[in-house]
Amino acid sequence: MLKRLAGLGWIGWLLCAVGAVLLAVLANLYIIVARPFGATLGIPIDQTGPVGAVIAVIVPFVWLFLYAGMGTTFWLLAGKDQRMSGRAWLVVALVLLCVGYPVYTGSLNQPIIALIGNGVVLAVAAIAVWSIWPISKLGAGLLVPVIAWVSLASVALVALITGQPF
């Protein structure tokens, strides 16, 4: 199946990149409509500082690019491996962790759980970058922005938990 996906060329890439983005959009629509676990639409703007206010505006757009990068990494791996390797499964796990994040954190109503989730995402992303680097530097490089963004989000969460403006 992976070779077939890779054999589709740019169409295979588009399927992977857009598929990952669509997963994110569907997860966020679920949050908006169903509001599981008491989810809100995020942190009230009066609880953030100037950086947090900017981040709140750009979050959806940044994640669209991050998901497209994760989907592209999967596609790049599909061209290298005959079967679903551990590296490909790491990318799938990373996508699923990121898609599930707003659900298991109640859209940040549970900042401690969100911070723990960020730690798990950072660990999986770092392991993925480390394991993918030898066979696809581009694929590994496309995951580095996930580490940067989730690290920034972790700093913001610590600020929220400690009552500091961010």
Secondary structure layout plus pairing:
Elements: H1 2-7, H2 10-34, H3 50-78, H4 86-104, H5 111-132, H6 137-162
Helix pairs in contact: 2-3, 2-4, 3-4, 3-6, 4-5, 5-6
Radius of gyration: 16 Å
Low-confidence sequence ranges: none
| Total helical elements | 6
Backbone shape: elongated
> Distance between termini?
45 Å
Number of domains: 1
Structure overview:
- The chain is 77% helix and 0% strand.
- It has 166 residues and is mostly helical.
- The chain has one domain (2-162).
- Helix 2 packs parallel to helix 4, helix 3 packs antiparallel against helix 4 (86-104) and helix 4 packs antiparallel against helix 5 (111-132).
Compact description:
77% of the residues lie in helices and 0% in strands.
Observed structural traits:
166 residues
